[in-house]
Amino acid sequence: MVPDNSSLTCLRVSSADSNDDGLTETDGSSEIGVLRATNTLLLDQLAAVQETAEKYVALAQSAQKQGEITQTRLAEQTDEVARLTALTEDLTLRAGAQRHADMAELADLRARIAALEQQKLEAEAETGRLTQDLDELGTAHGDLRLQQTDLTQEITALQNSTSWRLTAPLRAISRTIRHDRR
Fold it and tell me: How many contiguous H segments (helices) and E segments (strands) does the chain have?
């Protein structure tokens, strides 16, 4: 969950931060804490997206290998059908009695080819779906990287700001007081 801009820019002002002339000091540590927590959350989400992307890549590679195996088998079966078709024609000329058995075998091979072609189409469709999922994950990964960069720049800008440097002694004193109370 990414905090909205209003929660990122919210600064707490307490009565202890008031100085004698009625002016108040703001403590940026809560904003930094929110930014760091957001950054950590984004890094965790990025790691999860990367892990999912790697799984999808592995699935896509597996599907592609299966598709290649199916295509190879289909090519082999197509060659076998061509060979059997030539054999059937030769046998038809030589022995009319064998024609019926040979035609049945040819029909069976055509059914097998049709089944293999259907499997090939299904494998290609699955490869397409996995490729699309991989593209979407890549886009999400890029978006998270941009968010991380933006948040890192915000933290750096805050820590380099004049107010942050000017309030450093106050934060050190506050830490010392809190440490002494424990």
Answer: 5, 0
CA distance 31 to 151: 11
Distance CA 121, CA 175 (A): 67
Residue carrying structure tokens 């990367």: 50
In the chain, domain spans: 32-181
Output the pTM of the full model. 0.32
Give the 3-state secondary structure of 4-32: CHHHHCCCCCCHHHECCCCCECCCCHHHH
Average pLDDT value for residue range 16-40: 67
SS (H, E, C) 46-67: HHHHHHHHHHHHHHHHHHHHHH
Within 84-134, strands assigned E span none
Tell me what the mean pLDDT of segment 100-110 comes to: 87
pLDDT at 23 over 60: no
Residues in the chain: 182
Contacts of 138 (CB under 8 A, 6+ apart): 53
Inter-residue contact 170 to 29 (CB < 8 Å): no
- The CATH code of the domain at 32-181 is 1.10.287
Of the candidates 9, 4, 1, 3, the residue with the CA atom closest to the CA atom of residue 30: 9
